Amino acid sequence: MTQDETNQNKPTGNDQGRRNFLKGSAAAVGAGLAASVPGMASAADSDCEMKNPYGARPGGGISLPDYYKPWPAIKNRNVFMPGTEILPKNEMRISFLGSTPWPPTRLQSGTSILVELGNGESQPRRFFFDLGNGSISNAIAMQVPAPLINDIFISHLHSDHFADLPYMYPFRAFSGGYTPLRVYGPSGRTPELGMKHMIKHMREMNRWHEENFNACPIGDGMEIEVTEFDWKEENGICYDKDGVKVRHWPRSHVKDGASAYRLDWEDAGLSFVWTGDGRPDELSAKYGKGVDVFVSEGTIDVPSLSSMKLGAPAELWEYTIDIFHTMYYAAGYLFKQTQPRMAAICHYEYAGPALEAESTAEVRSNWDGLFMFGGPDVQVINVTKDAIWSREALLPDGAAPASMDPRWLLKPGEKLPAEITLPTPRLPREKQQEQFLRDLEIDPKLYYPPDAYRKPVQKWPGIKLNPREMLESRGIKVDEDK
Description:
Layout: H1 3-9, H2 18-28, H3 31-36, E1 79-80, E2 92-98, E3 112-117, E4 125-129, H4 135-141, E5 152-153, H5 165-174, E6 181-186, H6 195-205, H7 207-213, E7 224-229, E8 236-241, E9 244-253, E10 255-265, E11 270-274, H8 282-287, E12 293-296, H9 303-310, H10 314-324, H11 328-338, E13 342-345, H12 356-364, E14 371-373, E15 379-383, E16 388-393, E17 420-421, H13 429-432, H14 435-439, E18 464-465, H15 467-472
Parallel strand pairs: 1-16, 4-5, 5-6, 6-7, 11-12, 12-13, 13-14
Antiparallel strand pairs: 2-3, 2-15, 3-4, 8-9, 9-10, 10-11, 15-16, 17-18
Helix pairs in contact: 9-10, 11-12
InterPro entries: RibonucZ/Hydroxyglut_hydro, TAT_signal, TAT_signal_bac_arc
Organism: Gimesia maris
Protein name: Ribonuclease BN
């Protein structure tokens, strides 16, 4: 063992365990109470040594650093209100669109994390890590334009990590996403267990849906460009464009083909890790070192209580945790190894108020730095080189999609033209539906009031947009040379 390895194994000032903390708390109640409660022993005052790892902060807590604070670009310090903040250059925003594996609840959708990189414009660069069931509704409520949902990194092929993909991609095309969708993910031990195979058969499953929507202007929006990387590769690069690199490595999650990701934004010097699902592992500790925000999956380790709550044997919960997942104790251990500026847990089952303290205590057994749970949906973290701030998004129950912007239809760097022609449908209604079905339709004159009647448009009329006129009607002026 090298000297460095020996030093890494030595306890540090951050190693105050939960048991020692409780021991210190016992001292604080005084000898009289300790004598009156069976099993409680008094302890010396010096045993209570919980210290803020970031330095003394009287009145500032024992786990909060000076850099945990809002800044002028944060318009509301208490909640994030979508559509009200332009993400400045060199600022990262992380939003937990979904945070649970199972069961989905009104508080938690299937796991998905949105990472946005600010450019000082209304539409930042976006990266989606997993797209679990129900998460797309939160993306829409967060005013992410459907055509701009792209660059989706799937950690593995459990359905709670990609279930909204077959639902989302046809509607993205229908909503103006006329360019191919880009999806990234691991291969498997055999071709049938990889990302390409899943996408191919997902599209076969959606054959009726795709043909139906081909009656609309969709361009190439139904096409999916799949980047399938070698699931065994350690720290391989699966995305490298415009100063952003996304790396991946394998994790132990019962079956081959589960991956973790790290995004590094070179221009801003900011980084993000999402472990995906899996057992606590050495590679995540290695490749997550020094990251700004480290997000791990996690599960509470109380199998006996789970047994009492849900009726299944405790051994079943133990087996499930111990072959699939990272218990909170281990998540805290990974945080200690990687030393992020902020640590978070996503993909967890919210256990209710009674177990919140226990959940946090399990994390704190190894990690005493800045920490939060990435749920319930939607928690938001803003990150700069100097500060970090977290809030919950304020979402209406019936949020409408973001208003259409003709600039979404342009290629990167393309100037706004005087006119935009929408794509011609590839398979119009009259080519994919038999006449007898159309003959069953009720004459519209029978249900329209006379002064509201309009002649149905049932053949593609050819539609052209005047983009500047559209923008000016919304109070947006665009320079002629842009």
